[in-house]
Every structure is written in C-alpha cells, then in structure tokens.
Amino acid sequence: MAGYVELFNLSKIYDPKGKVAVVRAFNLDMAQGEFISLIGHSGCGKSTVLTMVAGLNDISEGSVVVAKREISGPGPDRGVVFQAPCLLPWMSAFDNVMLGVERVFPHASKKERTDIVTYYLSLVGLGSALKKFPKELSEGMKQRVGIARAFALAPKMLLLDEPFGKLDSLTRMELQDVLLELLDKDPKTTLMVTHDVDEALLLSDRIVMMTNGPEARVGETLAVPFVRPRVRASVLEHESYYDLRGRMIQFLEEQDQHRHTAPKEPEPSPANVVVAASA
Fold it and tell me: Is there a domain that residue 164 lies in?
C-alpha cells in the first residue's frame, strides 16, 4: 500500500526566525513493508528526519503520517533502535524486553507476554542468554536485545539510527543477517539511517540520498532491484550491484565538492572596519 508512511514537507528549524533549517521540505512516501535507507554526509539531517518520525524531535513544519494517523509524539507504533541500545543495567535481557511488552500488551496473560519476549530474544540468537545482565553481554549481544525489544512491541514501523555503527565488521555483518531474517519472518515498514553504502544496498528496497545541510532535502532516490529473501552472496554477485554502489559514491562525492565550493560570507574589508569603528 503506497503512502503507508508519508513525510510531507517535513522541516526542522532551530532559529526562531526561521533562518536556520537543518532539513527543509523533506518529502517521502513509503509502502507498507518497504525498507528505505537514508544516506548522506554527517550533519545533513538524516538522524533529524528519523527522530522527527519517531516523535522524539518536534516537527517545525510539515507532518508525518503512519498508517493513516498523523503522529504527535512517540508511541509504540514506531519501534526505535539506536546506535547504543540503552539497556537498563539492573535488568536482565529478558526483563529489558519485558518492560516494553508489559506496557504495550497490558491485557495479555503473563504466559503470553513471556512467550513474546522469549520468542524474539530467541530469534536474535539470545535464547540461552535470557537471564544475563548487560554487563555480561558483548556490544553485539546488547544490540541484539535492542532489536528484539523493538520487534516485540509489534510496531507498525521500525526506525533504525545507525544500529550497527559501533560494532566491529564481523559482528556488523552477523547482525545485518539477523535483521534480514527477522524482516523475512515479521515484515516491518523500516526507515534506517546509515553511512555505509554496502549496508544500504544489502538491506534496502530504496535508498534516499540527502543533500548537504542546512536546508537538506531528498537529492536522489535509488531503487534496489535485489529479490527477497536477501542472501549476501547473491547481492554481491548481482549485475547491478557495483553500478548502484558507484552511483551512491558519486553522489556523495558531488555533495562533498558542493560543500567545499559553497560561497562563503564575504569578510569585511579594512575600509569597512574603519568606517564601522568610526561610526
């Protein structure tokens, strides 16, 4: 269903006079079950867009609609996974996930809630670590808990803010595969922020490349033709892979050139300084 998630003229303005907009008139429609990655240079507003969709950052202009409902703040219909999973250190992996499940499913029986938590922790490979505390878990295991927690809430939309950015390469690849398997079993409309062009190609149905900020917007959108379920080896061998990868890198390099060649504010001439001082 086209327009399951709609970002309409979304803007974030920090200057009260409206002069400094990090993101301006950002438009995006997402079909139900679609996976879209936002990619662009640091500071272009990718995470700003994502946190506005999450309801964690006020929207200055425009609107966000999820499943025909305009959002006005955070809610369980949007599951969020950040770069750091922010687990409560005094709770086990099981209890960290259960905390949200109890709030979202208050009328479910204890067994039903237990089954939900156990199911998703098992899906991410932590079936034998349910009772372990965060201090006993590796960074990759902690992020698995964060992913399980997001899926366990049965959200309409999944929001991922560089979820694998702090992990080593091997763990990152393992968790990318875990995410692909989860989405095969439990499809979610997903918006992900990433700096990694290969990660975007592996996971996405479309890739939205953002222009530099301020006034960042959608610069170009790439459709990713790889079939699902995704297999990493097949993706890398696809005839379009390196053409798509090359276009993404070219776009980022073009934005980098624009950033370095953008006209700067003229410095005051010595004569102007003297005149100003005299005045």
Answer: no
Structural domain contains residue 9: yes
Q: Can you give the CATH number for the domain in which 193 is found?
A: 3.40.50.300
Q: Is residue 33 part of a domain?
A: yes
Give yes or no for a contact between 149 and 158, defined as CB atoms under 8 angstroms apart.
no
- Structure-token pair, residue 163: 């979820």
**Full residue range of the structural domain in which residue 43 is found:** 5-73+188-278
In one letter, which amino acid is 160?
Answer: L
Please check whether residue 120 lies inside any domain of the structure: no
Q: State how far the Cα of 42 lies from the Cα of 160, in Å rounded to an integer.
A: 16
Q: Give me the residue label for tokens 């992020």.
A: 143
Paired tokens of 171:
């763990």
pLDDT string in tens for the chain (279-residue length): 568 999 999 999 987 666 788 999 999 999 999 999 999 988 888 999 999 999 999 999 999 999 999 998 899 999 999 988 889 999 999 999 999 999 999 999 999 999 999 999 999 999 999 999 999 999 999 999 999 999 999 999 999 999 998 899 999 999 999 999 999 999 999 999 999 999 999 999 999 999 987 889 999 999 999 999 999 999 999 999 999 999 999 999 998 887 666 555 444 444 443 333 333
Number of domains, the chain: 1
Other C-beta atoms lying within 10 Å of the C-beta of residue 225: 11
* Distance, CA of 222 to CA of 67 (rounded, Å): 24
Which helix or strand (DSSP H or E) is residue 259 part of? helix 241-261
40 and 209 Cβ atoms separated by less than 8 Å: yes
